Amino acid sequence: MRAQTSLPALGIALVLLVTTSVFAVTVAAEQLEASRSETLERAGAVAVADALIGADSEATVRANVLDRAALRSLSPAALEARYGLDPRAGVRVQLGTETVLRRGSVGAGTTIERIVLIENRSRRTIVPTFRQSGQVTLPRRTPTVTLRVRPDNATVETVRVNGRIVLDNPTGLRGRFEVSTSRFETATIGFAGSGRLSSGDVRVTYWPARTRKSRLRVTIQRGGAAGG
Amino acid sequence: MAAIEAGIGVLLLLTLTVGFALGVSPAATESPQLEAYAHDAAVILENEQPRHQGQSRLAELTASAAAFDRERAALDRRAERLLPDNLLFRIETRHGTVGHRLPPDVPTGTATVTTGSGPVTIRVWYV
């Protein structure tokens, strides 16, 4: 008798319970999915940023030092091919406040920020006066030096960089010469020969680097390639 | 009776749901970023030219106690400028430390560089 009267109540109770269970499982599944998606997104952003600023990257001069022009010429396809970007992900790469690359939507994406240096090499020329000695010390370090040697009343037979002979001609050097120098020490260039060198006989062109710091931000949104 | 039982059941399930909604660990979101900052600072300082002598700026710092005393202020300034404003840092060497005091219980990012005269460890954390 009791069982019969409470049958509708039992039915309602069952419906309630099943509804709640379904709701609980849905919430749990969503939470897990969101958490996994975020982790994967972050891992993707970390990997792309790492590859972009690594020493092997095409956008860098050496590790963490970016070449701005090379970074600008990157395309999403290149990021996929060489820097491990997921083809379906939306991506944005920013250098400082400038967006250098963008594909799809990244509004809800995950961002990784890296500290980088941007290197610019500019050309400088000095004309040694040779008033005190036959040597000239470059004020800044440089990977190469271009010498233009046109002495009027003297000959230059030997050119030394930090004591090491880099150019030598017993009958006299004349013309333009490219000399490699060390990036790690200050270069002192010595000229030896006969006669007395005067101002204008030699012009020294070098390429000092100027670096400034910036931030590289890589934002990735999973499945964002199609959107906006 | 059945209604009360069902009520208890629903309550139980809702508790579980709330547990899921709150409990899925908010995976350490800041640590990869902090590690990245520490790594970048280490790489950049390691590749920087020494001010006087040595292989690199960090190697120069660890060379001797005298070199450390001479270089610490300059390195402090350099690291301060390099790192974002919302970060504090500490650089540990055999001869002492440069930077801020590390508070207990903060997530940090760490990078260690091996130089000819001993390891240098850089730690960063959010203000």
Poorly predicted ranges of chain B: none
- Fraction of residues in helix of chain A: 25-40%
The main sheet of chain A orders its strands as 1-2-5-14-3-4
Order of helices and strands of chain A: HHEEHHEEEEEEEEEEEE
- How many structural domains are formed by the residues of chain A? 2
- Tally of strands of chain A: 14
Tally the helices of chain B: 4
Tally of helical runs of chain A? 4
What Rg of chain B is obtained from the alpha carbons, in whole angstroms? 24 Å
Average pLDDT of chain B, rounded to a whole number, is 86
Q: What's the multimeric state?
A: heterodimer
Roughly how many Å apart are the termini of chain B? 57 Å
> Strand count, sense and closure of the main sheet of chain A?
6 strands, mixed
Domain module tally of chain B: 1
Strand content of chain A: 35-45%
- Counting DSSP E segments of at least 2 residues, the number of strands of chain B comes to 4
Structural class of chain A: alpha+beta
Q: How large is the radius of gyration of chain A?
A: 33 Å
Q: In percent terms, what proportion of residues of chain B is strand?
A: 15-25%
